[in-house]
Amino acid sequence: MPTNPPNITALPSPPDPNDRSSFNVRAYPWSVAQQTLATEVGAVAANVFANAGEAVTAAGTATSKAADAVAAAAAAAVAATSAVNSPGTSGTSTDALAVGLGTKAFTMQAGKDWVPGQPIVIAYATTPTIQMSGVLNTYDKATGAATATMLNATGAPGPYSAWVISIGVAAANGVFKLPKPGSRGADAMLVKADSGNWVDVSSGSFVQTIDAAANLGADWFVFYGNSGAGVVTLLGTALPPGSMLIVQCDGVIISKQIVRMAEQVLTLRDEKPAGAYGDAMTGGAWVQRTLNTVVANSIPGASLSSNSITLPAGTYEVQGSVPAWNASVHRSRLQGGGLGTFLYGTSESAAGSSTSRSMLRGVFTLHAGAAAITLHTYSNVNAAAGYPSNQGVSEIYSELHFRKVA
User: Sign of dihedral through CA atoms 145, 150, 152, 154?
Assistant: First the structure.
């Protein structure tokens, strides 16, 4: 720690050779004062040297810390660049964007982990309170090109060209809380005033109409979802319960972006009481199999009645497992429903009191008004369609699983 230098005592009046009357009186005190002066000057010199040493040490420390600070700043800059350029959901864009609602197109870093449907926030780097938030529509991982529908915007309109991009926050149910929530159970044309709304179908099956693009104008959009039990068709897309999409308009073209398409499935079984055998199979004949239990059904219009399956028009994937016991050879097939030809399962053998399963897999298309579908099996000898496990619970034999794909 530096210290103040010691004081130097003031010298007495020096002897004057021209004043002989005072010369002798002043000479002695002057000579004695020189000795004191030498001592005090030495003390000052020692103090100055010590302070100079401490100053050199402090300067070295300051230089080292300054270098450390520069290195830390450089490392932070590298880390920031690495974070922007690494996979994840952060980035930047230099595209000129005006602050506002609707669809925005921009380019950020390539190779990110963005997925369409994720919430996104774009904030002006200089003033982060100037920002837009919404839902990502598209992202090209190879080029970084992206589009997003902005549902909220704050700050002066700009445009601005320095944006920081990050993932946003959705509402608790996974859906943005949009203004003017609406619910409907029948068609009411989507018009310009609906822009920015969340439109929910709570009941009914119908075709949703929409006004012309010229009337809707640019930057028009709605979130449209089906929380009811029916199927709603919008812009040629059938929305089963649980589905959601974004509809957008640029004043010329109306487009849609699917956010979530609920799976439509029908799973059926032949369940019998504990200890009961499967259906009797007559040798040399195709026999209709029992289907008596609906395990799952999310296909509106699909049903099971008296072992017959009714499905609405569409394209389906089917998987089935059809057992036989004590059958020399056996096979399964679906028929009816306008399939055109039979849909056959695998050829199997279950000789010598053994059990095996004929596996059904395929894709087929049904047209409107198609007849019901039935499941049949063939065995070349009298057999049973399954041997019981006798475990005190229901026996499960044939199973069919349909998934509507179009």
Answer: positive
318 found inside a domain: yes
Alpha-helix runs per DSSP H in 86-158: none
Q: What is the DSSP string of 356-398?
A: EEEEEEEEEEE-TTPPPEEEEEEESS-EES-----SSS-EEEE
Range of the domain at 54: 1-83
Sign for the pseudo-dihedral over CA of 67, 69, 72, 74: negative
Residues 101 and 214 in one domain: no
- Let me know whether 272 and 398 are in one domain: yes
- In 117-212 the beta strands, taken as DSSP E runs, fall at 119-124, 131-139, 145-154, 163-167, 182-184, 198-201, 206-208
Amino acid 77: pLDDT: 46
Mean pLDDT, each 10-residue run in order, the chain (406 residues): 78 77 74 74 75 74 63 48 53 90 89 82 84 87 90 86 78 44 82 84 91 91 85 88 88 87 90 93 91 90 91 90 92 80 88 90 84 86 90 94 89
Looking at the structure, do residues 187 and 311 belong to the same domain, yes or no? Answer: no
Do 343 and 333 meet the contact criterion of CB atoms below 8 Å apart? yes
Q: State the pTM of this model.
A: 0.49
192: DSSP letter: G
Q: Are residues 135 and 211 in the same domain?
A: no
Closest CA to 291 of 274, 302, 305, 277: 305
Alpha carbon distance 211, 239 (integer Å): 19
The secondary structure of 35-85 as a DSSP string is HHHHHHHHHHHHHHHHHHHHHHHHHHHHHHHHHHHHHHHHHHHHHHHHHHH
